[in-house]
Design brief:
The protein is elongated, with a radius of gyration of 17 Å. It starts with a helix and ends with a helix. It is mostly helical and 78 residues long. It has three helices and no strands. The chain has helices spanning 3-10, 15-37, 47-77. 13% of the residues are buried. The chain is 79% helix and 0% strand. It has one domain.
Amino acid sequence: MDINERSRQTKGYKPFMVFYNIAMGLFYIAGGVFFIVQRNELPILNPTLLGLLGLAMLLYAGVRFYRGYSEYRQKNEN
């Protein structure tokens, strides 16, 4: 059994993962917005790095949402 065949067997619809991806996406959106809004008041890093961290978190949230949505859509096609 090669690796591709094995991954096709284990790859299936996991409803928990869809909700997990959506919840993590919301968490990262909240964190990203918080870092962008509060970047001048927080004494952790300089404001530019906090802004970039916030943008990276928003981008990662988008990836999470897309992953959850594509799994959900794939399940409904079958």
